[in-house]
Amino acid sequence: MKISKKDALMWFEFFSALPEDETLLTTQQEIMYAVFAQIEGAVDYRNDMLMSEIKGLKTLENRTFYVGEDKKFPKGCCSCLLGTGLTAIRKTNKCNLECKFCYNFGELDEIAPIGEGMWEIGGTKFYEKDIDLLLTIQPKPTGVSYVYLEPFMEIEKYYSVIKKFRAAGIHQHLYTNGVLATEETLKALSEAGLDEIRFNLGASNCSDKVIENIGIAKKYIKNVGIETPMTPEFFDAFFKKKPAILDTKLDFINCAELHLNGNNIDNYWGENMYISRHGYISPIWSRELTLKFMKAAVEEKWGFVVHDCSNHTKFARGLNLNGKEGGWFGSSNYGCEFSKIPYEVFLPILRDDNFKFLSEEELPDGYKPGTLMF
After folding, report:
1. 34, 95, 225, 275: which could form a disulfide with 150 (CB 3.0–4.6 Å)?
2. How would you classify residue 211: left for phi > 0, otherwise alpha for psi between -120 and 50, otherwise beta?
3. Of the CATH numbers 3.90.220.20, 1.25.40.10, 3.20.20.70, 1.10.357.20, which one belongs to the domain with range 64-342?
4. Contact of 212 with 179, CB cutoff 8 Å
5. C-alpha dist (Å) from residue 316 to 76, 81, 87, 144, 209
6. What is the pLDDT of residues 121-160, one digit of tens each?
7. Is pLDDT at 374 greater than 70 in this prediction?
8. CA–CA dist 81, 68 (Å, integer)
9. pLDDT per residue over 112-123, tens digit each?
10. Three-state SS at 147
């Protein structure tokens, strides 16, 4: 059904007022999904219009979009979207910053440690000496990534593990906010065999120090890029620092569409939100800013890849990963971050007179407010 925006707002105000433990009736669920479809359809239309303005827009086998030289497209993303997935290697449970977009916002002091002398790989705990055993038993992944939370809090522990995976011929990349990096540690990562490093430049609001570290990293590490949730703050700060950022000669920028969970969603209260395929909830401006960013990259000839790491990309990632792991046809780990839909976060977009549904129809009998439904 093509529910009207007026009726959508009335129903979602009702859903938002329901007790926490009350579930929706079947017909009410149909209304909920109709509202989500109307919002997502309008968001997709707006994004399609922006994409039509980007010259030279490319796809990676229809799994994601990017602009720039193919050879600079990050190999870590190729592993994620085309290869045998991207295995996360976890060690550090601490961070030196607290970002409003962080999925662990508000709980950084409560993150459980991996364990003294241990690493978490694929959800399993390993001692470093166990990695040789792992590599002889299970098929090697096309890539691994060092995540969770800020590796440079104890970066000296990473070198010997990186050497093991380098000897095994596995592509490795590492995420960092870059604040604690030094020329010495970046050089050591290169010597250990790190293939790719990604700086979350938005975490430091494009600080001069981190921009300098990106340039230093490029002296030693083959593939250097930025991976940051696309927010208005990052968008504005990037363009203020653009000459210095371009001077680093980086290879790529992954513009991640910001999606929210129970930890960080309150930091974006009042923003216009949509839900993608009943999964990730995101502010609608995140991907819109990415597409405007990509257009500027083409028109101004920035000289590196800009990747639209959107909710569509995350959906494709889940399909690829489950397919490579032998999952059943159509299976994916993509899903909603919330056990119960937070209906209230969609009220601002339904109240926004500037956000229009593409088409509207009157609700059929049995679906109108005030009608008793079974």
Report:
1. 95
2. alpha
3. 3.20.20.70
4. no
5. 15, 7, 16, 18, 35
6. 999 999 999 999 999 999 999 999 999 999 999 999 999 9
7. no
8. 18
9. 999 999 999 999
10. strand
Give the number of C-alpha atoms closer than 13 A to the C-alpha of residue 202, restricted to the C-beta side: 21
Query: How would you label 69-107 residue by residue, b for 16+ Cβ within 10 Å and e otherwise?
Result: eeebbbbbbbbbbbbbbbbebbbbbebeeebebbebbee
The rounded Cα 194 to chain-centroid distance in angstroms is 22
CA distances from 25 to 31, 34, 145, 244, 316 (A): 10, 14, 43, 56, 31
State the DSSP string of 189-204: HHHHT--EEEE-GGGG
Judged by DSSP in three states, 215 sits in helix
Cβ–Cβ under 8 Å, residues 289 and 232? yes
Q: Return d(Cα 48, Cα 17) in angstroms, integer.
A: 34
Which residue ranges make up each domain of the chain?
Answer: 64-342
DSSP string, 264-288: TGGGGTTS-EEEETTTEEEEHHHHH
Listed residue (170, 39, 149) closest to 105, CA to CA: 149
> What's the N-to-C CA distance of the chain in angstroms?
18
d(CA 273, CA 281): 7
Which residue in 245, 223, 233 sits closest to 297, CA to CA?
245
Q: Is the peptide bond before 57 cis (omega within 30 degrees of 0)?
A: no
Burial of 209: CB neighbours in 10 Å, binned 0-12, 13-18, 19+: exposed
Reference 221, options 229, 210, 213; nearest CA is 213
Q: What does DSSP assign to residue 86? A: -
Handedness of CA 232, 237, 243, 245 (dihedral sign): negative
**Going edge to edge, which strands form the sheet with 124-127?**
58-59, 65-67, 305-309, 252-256, 223-229, 196-199, 171-176, 143-147, 87-90, 118-121, 124-127
Question: Regarding beta strands 305-309 and 252-256, do their DSSP bridges make them parallel or antiparallel, or are they unpaired?
Answer: parallel
